[in-house]
Specification:
This protein is α/β, with parallel strands linked by helices and about 325 residues long. It has 9 helices and 15 strands.
């Protein structure tokens, strides 16, 4: 039996590090036992889980869905991976984990910086906004919200050849956006975003606006920043109620003088796996592309890692994230110590 650590949300706002046991000899034929190296906190989703208000997350539960680790045991029929392989997968915040090799598990090529691999998960989620959009070379794109989802969406829009405007009320996050390649950064607390976008685009406005905040208020406030025939991409997940007159929003969608298209960009709009055939926009293929870009340096995620923490500090870390501590943007649990 293996004794291992795991982060558990036991009740609303209560996070504990617990110890559990796992029988490494009881693997099913196609299962892998993975020893975790690093796992990444997804601030928006996991804060919602910690609150007890995320309906799909049942308490008590182990949060997390992005990890990298080493295969230390395999079932008798496991063929895709060998003991000693380093893999990326949708791992939770636990030291050891059993997964099926048929799930989203990808071998990491040599030379890839492992502590940054979990950020691939956030970028794969963000890629749904790029896949859903019509972004082309030379377009003007605004990304509202520069958390991990917004930052990775901004980088992916840059990969498409767009000029990207990053918008966020945090100067720290805007500085990170600049390091990651944003062409322009705007703080709505210090500038009139619409006026600056008008100046930058010579009054054309942006062809694509990606909302990565999940705030209905932010969406309504920014609908007027989109060019005629442009698109609004809802990447963030709306969670909080908001009351407002939505006529202007609906006019921009309905009336030809605005002609704005609104698209949802939840990651589940695309299949998880490609199976035995080529599927252009599966999460698996996107993740492989991002891992290769991470390895060759064309996916500059290094500025996103702001904290590497011990699992023993989980309760404090989640409390700081929920309180909006700007120092806790990209937080990795280090399971190697």
């Amino acid at each position: 039996m293996i004794s291992y650590r795991k982060v558990v949300i036991t009740a609303p706002e209560v996070v504990e590090l617990q110890t559990a046991e796992l029988d490494e000899t009881a693997l099913k034929p196609n299962e892998l036992l993975i020893k975790k190296y690093y796992s990444l906190i997804s601030a928006g989703t996991e804060t919602a889980c910690r609150s007890g208000k995320e309906l799909w997350f049942k308490l008590p539960g182990v949060p997390g869905y992005s990890g990298v680790g080493e295969v230390v045991a395999a079932g008798k029929q496991a063929k895709r991976f060998q003991i000693g392989d380093i893999v990326y997968y949708k791992g939770k915040h636990c030291e050891y984990e059993v997964v099926s090799e048929d799930d989203l598990v990808i071998k990491i090529p040599d030379g890839t910086p492992l502590e940054y691999v979990p950020f691939v998960r956030m970028a794969a989620i963000s890629s749904s906004a790029i896949r859903a959009s019509n972004i082309e070379f030379g377009d003007d794109v605004a990304v509202i919200g520069q958390g991990l989802i917004g930052l990775t969406a901004m980088m992916e829009a840059k990969m498409q050849g767009a000029r990207v405007i990053a918008v966020d009320p945090s100067e720290k996050r805007l500085a990170i956006a600049k390091q990651c390649g944003a062409d322009e950064t705007l703080n709505p607390n210090t500038v009139n975003v619409k006026e600056v976008i008008e100046q930058l685009t010579e009054k054309r406005m942006v062809t694509t606006l990606i909302d990565a905040t999940g705030s209905s208020k932010v969406v309504c406030e920014n609908i007027g920043n989109i060019a005629w025939g442009g698109e609004l991409i809802l990447l963030g997940s709306p969670r909080k109620p908001y009351e407002a007159n939505v006529t202007e929003l609906l006019q921009h969608i309905h009336q030809f003088r605005f002609n704005v298209e609104v698209k949802g960009a939840h990651e589940m709009r695309y299949p998880l796996m490609g199976g035995n055939k080529f599927v252009k926009h599966s999460t698996e293929r996107t993740s492989r592309i991002l891992i290769e870009k991470l390895r060759d340096g064309s996916f500059p995620v290094k500025p996103l890692l702001t904290q590497k923490v011990r699992p023993e500090d989980a309760a404090e870390v989640y409390a700081r994230i929920a309180a909006g501590d700007e120092e806790y943007l990209g937080v990795i649990f280090d399971w190697t110590k």
